[in-house]
Predict the structure of L-threonylcarbamoyladenylate synthase.
Amino acid sequence: MTLQRVSNLAELKAVNDFKEKIIAYPTESVFGLGCRVDKLEIIEEILNLKDRNIEKGFVVLASSLEQLKGIVDFSLLTSELKELLEIVNYPRGNSPYSPFDDLPGVSREFKNKFLLAYQRALERLMPIYKKGYLIESVEHQEHGEIIGVLLELMLQVQQGIFSIPDDKRKLEALYLACALHNSGQGITFLLPAAKSCPQILHGKFATVAVRFTQEPFLVKLIKILGGALVSTSANYSGQDSIRTADQVAQMLDTDFRSYLADQVILIDKPVIYDPKLGVKESILVNPLSTQTIKKLEKKNIGIIPPQGINRNKQDILYPNMDIPSANLAESVLYTLMRFCIDRTFTVYCYNVLSNYYEDPDVEHNEAQLNALMQEVTARYQQR
């Protein structure tokens, strides 16, 4: 059978039975396979094509809460979480929000204490920071001094932000980080599955994975298909992700189930972000409060993933870890957020960085630093 290719969404819409097909389409960083979320027979075909375990469930790609009726249990979503879901995942660099804005789920108490710590950190670090120079030009010993001051400030922060109860502080910091996340890498949220949610969507879990998108191409695709989509990477389960339309075609052509190619329409466009930007697959977050998780446990639907960041944790905590940016304020902002979310992780990483800058026998350059930070985050996750 011949794989049908289209070059844009207008051509897709012109295909008579496109809503009854598997759509292979570019996402932020990889190619995905999807269909309307209510097309259960087609979803089963995707399972077959990917050789995917049904217990894993699927990501649901949506552009509004209304598209999730019957899939997500809205009674277990707080008003703050509903508001947050509507303002995340803007295109890279286009988020209109700042820590000074009133953001969903971030209380006035947290915001005031956070901004006070933020201001104090800037006041302490600015004399060290060479005015008029990019941070890349700052001597390595001054990098180390900045790291040392950050560690000292983080410990002082405990007297302010850390007076807020632990669960509440971590959740508010997580909401703040999600609202400000601006790299183009999507955030997928684990939300309570509705009683009517098909098991093929949530698998063995009591939650269903939902990614709300503001990306214009994906928003238009959802609109054309008439509702939320299931979304999964266009590769065999457990294998490397596919990043081009030609790779999708090759996978289907060489598979012994190549007859399935007849069920697929391939949108022949590049992924949304150039691979050189390093945008990865989505961050997975459980944003539910402890109280909501307890209510969900009573429903005994399935496994509840841990509260917080469940996948690609480093990608929401890592930005500016090494303070490479000319924007010192942004670096301090991320430092405070990651400290509130995971204090142990932050102190651990900065201690490693401090030792790195103080070691005269180590070559100090951007490539070495990036490699060190990747190693640190991987090592910490294995602890």
Q: What stands out?
A: The longest strand covers residues 31-36. The chain is about 40% helix and 10% strand. Residues 340-382 form one domain. The CA atoms of residues 147 and 354 lie 6 Å apart.
